[in-house]
Amino acid sequence: MNDTIAAISTTLGVGAISIIRVSGKDAIKEVNKITNIDLTKKESHTISYGYIKNNNEIIDEVLITIMKAPKTFTKENIVEINCHGGIATTKKTLELLLEQNIRLAEPGEFTKRAFLNGRIDLIESEAVMNLINVKNEKSRKIAINNLKGSTTNQIKKLREKILKILTNIEVNIDYPEYHDIEVLTIEKLKKELITIEQSLDKLIENSKVSKLLTNGINVAIIGRPNVGKSSILNKLIEEDKAIVTDIPGTTRDIVEAGLNIDGITLNLIDTAGIRETEDIVEKIGVEKSKEIIEKSDLILLVLNNNEKLTKEDEKLLELSKNKLRIIVVNKSDLDKKLEINLPNTVYTNTIDDEGLSKLIEKIKELFNLDQIETDDFYYISNINQVKKIENTKNSIKDIKEGLENNIPIDMLEIDLKNIWQTLGEVIGETYTEELLDNLFKDFCVGK
After folding, report:
1. Which CATH number covers residue 167?
2. Does residue 312 belong to any structural domain of this protein?
3. Which domain, by its residues, includes 317?
4. Are 224 and 316 in contact (CB under 8 A)?
5. At 143, is the pLDDT very low, low, confident or very high (cuts 50, 70, 90)?
């Protein structure tokens, strides 16, 4: 990390401003070579007006921000060049920088340097990426929480608790004559392990919820043809996105749309009506619908209030029985002919303004959207890190089973040390190059 890196930090395109970020020990000295300003004499955290020059040719009129180490994002010297937002001028300025002793940054390298220089930990690094990609208000709030260190603090507390247990075991083994030292009994250790396990359970559960908050809840609208699936989609998004006719089989492909409910994004997918058909195109649509059922977080199975339950309806009920679902009895404004008594059933219509209100309330209820408190929400978004937490929980389960089988506490000490070590890997107290490469590979180049 002794070299100097540069990258365009804003979206490349036509706009008011483009920002090029440069970081490294020699950042100020190298950028100084292509400006008409003496940046070496500028105070830290100041902005200067001037020009980017290539010999005697003026390339762009710019504002240049100087930030000197260690009070910067990377804890290195940082220069940010605010160019006009044209593509040509921004790329030309970057080209001039790369002709100096500066190389193009790798994806996520600025954030990686911030981590390696101790500015942020791994969880906070993830939060940076999450903050860039947020789609709704709740996602933004929980990403900010992690950026402030809420998850890191929780894991550090767990590591401190485990370290205290390990210390107690060591003292009991090495200094048994010290009567004023608390003896760690099996019952005391069990209680400690239960509290640690509960904290890990909450972290795992929060991580699952965070995935839904960040990526949105994938909601598949399924049903046989002509029960009103497309009408429900159009009504929810207040837009005629799906074609609605009285002709069965009109929807032959997948229609997708987004909806925001209380700060949560629903990725709505209107599927082709599922039925037996000889139409080749419609048959392909039906197969796609079945695939989407498997991948969805929630199923809205639409039935017709004005018709008795059909064999096709029964097949759909069987097909979706193991998925989280809501039975949507549509066309409630018509005469009731359908008799059904299943959990999570709501009656709707697409005629009046209140027609889908019960459906929306049921979705909020199933995902506890009203109960998600973002102020103390801590989570992990990287799937490999989540697996480490799950492995840690399994290790605790093994220790508890060992205690039940009367294995001496000191024999379980190595398992406790492994748990302490794994939790350290999650926050980056220890790490491998492979882990870092995997973590930062999806970042944009300028971050």
Report:
1. 1.20.120.430
2. yes
3. 216-350
4. yes
5. confident
DSSP β-bridge partners for residue 79: 22, 66
- pTM, two decimals, is 0.66
With b meaning 16 or more CB within 10 Å and e meaning fewer, what string describes 125-163?
Answer: bbbbbbbeebbbebbbbbbebbbebbbbebbbebbebbe
- Give the rounded distance of the alpha carbon of 277 from its chain centre: 40
- Which residues pair with residue 65 across a beta bridge? 47, 80
> Nearest Cα to 206, choosing from 380, 387, 368?
380
In order of 4, 8, 29, 54, 104, the CA distances from 95 in angstroms are: 14, 11, 17, 10, 10
DSSP character for 326?
Answer: E
Render pLDDT for 31-79 as a digit per residue (tens, 0 to 9).
999 999 999 999 999 999 999 999 889 999 999 999 999 999 999 999 9
Domain assignment present for residue 365? The answer is no
| 195 φ/ψ angles, rounded to the nearest 5 degrees | -65, -40
Indicate if 224 and 243 belong to the same structural domain: yes
CA 329 to chain centre: 33
How many of the other CB atoms lie within 10 Å of CB of 267? 18
**E strand segments, 192-324:** 217-222, 255-261, 264-270, 298-304
Picking from 19, 6, 13, the residue whose alpha carbon sits closest to that of residue 87 is 13
For residues 49 and 163, state if they share a domain. no
What confidence tier does 242 reach under pLDDT thresholds 50, 70, 90? Answer: very low
